[in-house]
Amino acid sequence: MPPHDLNCLTIAELEALAYTRMDKQTRDYYNEGADSGSTLQENSSAYAKYRIRPRVLRDVSAIDTSTSIFGHKNSVPIGVAPTAMQRLAHHEGEEATARACRNMGVVMGLSSFSTTTLEDVANICSDDGGASDEKPDVQGVPNALQLYLFEDREESRRLIERAKKAGFRAVFLTVDTPYLGRRNLEIRNQFKLPPHFKVANFAPDEEKQDPSAPNDDSRDVQTPRQRRPSIASHHDGEKHVPPSGPVTFHTHAANPTLSWDRDITWLKGICGPEMQVWVKGIATGEDAELAIRHGVDGIVVSNHGGRQLDGAMATIDALPEVIGAVRGRIPVHVDGGIRHGTDVFKALALGADFVWIGRPVLWGLAYKGQEGVELCLRLLADEFRLCMGLAGTVKVGDIGKEYLVKIDKSGFVARL
Ligand SMILES: Cc1cc2nc3c(=O)[nH]c(=O)nc-3n(C[C@H](O)[C@H](O)[C@H](O)COP(=O)(O)O)c2cc1C
Ligand SMILES: CC(C)CC(=O)C(=O)O
C-alpha cells in the first residue's frame, strides 16, 4: 500500500487542497451547483439520513471489493464520472485521469467535451496502452463515452463511430440537459475555455468550418451571426433555434428536442451490438420504466451533480424509487455527492450496482495530476473496504438493505 499523504486523508481535505490550486474561473465552474445550490448540497447531506446496521463475528479477514462492469473486473464499485474540460484543473487533464484509472483498475467515463481526444484516452486505458514502468502488469480498464446528442446528427454519429472504433464499451447519453442549468458564477465569470485548450473531440474541420468563423482555437468564440443566446439568457423563453457553427458546450450540449422514441431508437441503431446504451440523469420510476421499454442497457441515477435542476431530489433519495421500478431488469448506477466510502456502501445497500464520482476526481487532478486522482480513488477505495469489514461484509454482492436504516427528522429509525 502506498504511504499516506498526511496532508490529505479525506476527500474534504482534498477539496481544500485543490481550492488554492485552481484559478477562480475553474474553481467556480467545477464546484458550483445550479441556482441556490440546494440540490448540490443535499446530494451529500442526504447520505446522513441513512445509517449502517453493522453485523459482527463474521470473519472479515478477506474482503473483496471488486465488481464487474462491462465484462471487466473493476477493483471497487466506483467509476470516474464524465466531467468536461479537465485540462482546466491540470495541464495533463484527461490523460492524467486515464493513467490513474488504469493504475487503480477503475472504469473511466469520458465527457464528449473533454480536452483530450477519445482515442488518446482509450489508448491509455487499453490493455497494451500506457503501461507504466512501475506497474507493467496493470490491466486495461474499459471506457464509457458520455454523449450529448446534438441536433446535428452527423456530428454525433461521427463521434459514436469513433468511440466504437476506439473500443469504448458504452455510451452514456446525458438526459438531464434539455437546457443548461443556471449556474450564476459561471454566468458572472463569463466562463469560457481559454484559447490554448481545445474541446478536442470536435477539433475544427476545415470543410465544415463557416468561413466567417474567427480563426481562433477557443471553441467558445463565435461570430455574431452564429452566436446563440448568451449563458446568461440561453433559456429565457425564446423560440428554440438549432445551433449552427462551431461546437461549443454553451451552444451544443443542451438539446431540448431529445425524446424517447426518436432518439433512443436512433442511438441504439448507431451503437449496434458493440456499445451499450445507457441513460444518465434518470430520477424517477416512470422514466426508469420508459428506459427499459426503449431497450437501454443501464441507468445512471443522476442530477448532474446538482448543476441542472435546483430543487431536484438528492440522488440517494431518488434511488429507491428507481430501483423499485427497475426490479433488477437492468443495472442501476448512481452519482452525486459521494464523498466517503460509507456513502458508496449506503448506495449499494439501497440497491445501486455501482457509483460514479465527479468533483473529487477533479480536486485530485488539481492537487497533483495523476497522483492526485490516484489518491482520490485510493481514499474512497480504502474507506469502502474498511466500511465493508466493519459492517460485516466480505463481498460487494453481500451488501443489501438489511445493512441500512433511515432516520427521519424526529429521530425515528426505520428499517428498510
Ligand atoms: C465540472 C463538471 C463538469 C461536468 N461535465 C459533465 C459532462 O460533460 N457530461 C455529463 O454528463 N456530466 C457532467 N458532469 C456531471 C458528472 O458526470 C456527475 O454527474 C456529477 O459530477 C456527480 O456529482 P459529484 O460531482 O457530486 O460527484 C460534470 C460535473 C462537473 C462537476
Ligand atoms: C460540456 C458541459 C455542458 C459540461 C457539463 O455537463 C457541466 O458543466 O455540467
Automatic annotation (TrEMBL):
Origin species: Polychaeton citri CBS 116435
Pfam families according to UniProt: FMN_dh (PF01070)
Binding site for FMN: 82-84, 111, 146, 174, 280, 302, 335-339, 358-359
Cofactor: FMN
Region feature Disordered, mapped onto this chain: 205-253
GO cellular component, as recorded: cytoplasm
Family designation: Belongs to the FMN-dependent alpha-hydroxy acid dehydrogenase family.
Domain FMN hydroxy acid dehydrogenase: 3-409
Gene3D superfamilies tied to this protein: Aldolase class I
Protein name: Oxidase FUB9
Tagged with keyword Signal: no
Active-site annotation: H304 (proton acceptor)
PROSITE patterns: FMN_HYDROXY_ACID_DH_1, FMN_HYDROXY_ACID_DH_2
InterPro entries to which the protein is assigned, alphabetical: Aldolase_TIM (IPR013785), Alpha-hydoxy_acid_DH_FMN (IPR012133), FMN-dep_DH (IPR000262), FMN_HAD (IPR037396), FMN_hydac_DH_AS (IPR008259)
Keyword entries, A-Z: Flavoprotein, FMN, Oxidoreductase
Gene Ontology molecular function, alphabetical: FMN binding; oxidoreductase activity
Basic and acidic residues composition-biased segments: 205-222
Binding-site residues, glyoxylate: Y29, Y148, R183, H304, R307
